[in-house]
């Protein structure tokens, strides 16, 4: 059960982080509509491979940081401001989000697996995000940097990300009609998660 928890946490965090319409999601949906489900799945798998690498690097970096206590407190303080800032953004600034349209132009059929990898590599935000997320979970006692928890957490993130990509592939027409409703409400959910992470990290600092 202890090793299963990081899998669930990784899945949930990734699912919430990726569920908003973005370049990769919308491109996957567009490929599905224009070229078929199989091509879109190939694209999603390619993007998920990069997510795996990015998350693994992020967790290893977080483990390295955790082993150097002289910088942990400073980074936790930075993490508080980051999570607090994200909470403010999702609760207030993002109340009336606009629909995000894919900017990537799809020209002909190429290897969609490598196209997915390319688009995913252009997004570097997952690395710092999962650094602070894994450190926050570790500070709360829900995660450790041992081999099995790291492996299950990374697997959870990959599964959560791919699940969202697949959701857009198979149900985009239904999602498209409810995008504004989805974005407006998911912002509050993500805002609650980032607020929780900020509070947990603050309590950890005060207790130490």
Automatic annotation (TrEMBL):
Topology in membrane: Multi-pass membrane protein
The organism's place on the tree of life at top rank: Bacteria
Pfam families: LysE (PF01810)
Main localization of the protein described in the UniProt heading: membrane
UniProt KW keywords: Cell membrane, Membrane, Transmembrane, Transmembrane helix
Locations listed in the record: Cell membrane
Transmembrane intervals: 6-28, 40-65, 71-92, 113-142, 148-169, 181-203
Protein name: Lysine transporter LysE
């Amino acid at each position: 059960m202890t090793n299963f928890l990081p899998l669930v946490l990784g899945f949930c965090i990734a699912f919430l982080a990726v569920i908003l319409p973005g370049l990769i999601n919308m491109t996957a949906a567009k490929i599905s509509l224009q070229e078929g489900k199989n091509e879109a799945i190939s694209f999603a798998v390619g993007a998920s491979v990069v997510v795996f690498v990015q998350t693994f690097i992020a967790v290893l970096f977080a483990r390295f940081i955790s082993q150097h206590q002289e910088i942990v407190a400073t980074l936790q303080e930075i993490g508080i401001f980051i999570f607090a800032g994200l909470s403010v953004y999702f609760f207030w600034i993002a109340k009336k989000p606009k629909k995000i349209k894919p900017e990537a132009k799809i020209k002909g059929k190429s290897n969609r697996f490598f196209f997915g990898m390319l688009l995913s590599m252009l997004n570097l935000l997952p690395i710092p995000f999962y650094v602070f997320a894994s450190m926050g979970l570790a500070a709360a006692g829900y995660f450790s940097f041992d081999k099995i928890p790291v492996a299950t957490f990374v697997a959870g993130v990959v599964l959560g990300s791919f699940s969202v990509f697949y959701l857009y592939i198979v149900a985009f027409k239904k999602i498209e009609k409810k995008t504004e409703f989805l974005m407006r409400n998911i912002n509050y959910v993500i805002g609650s998660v980032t607020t929780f992470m900020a509070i947990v990290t603050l309590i950890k600092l005060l207790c130490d």
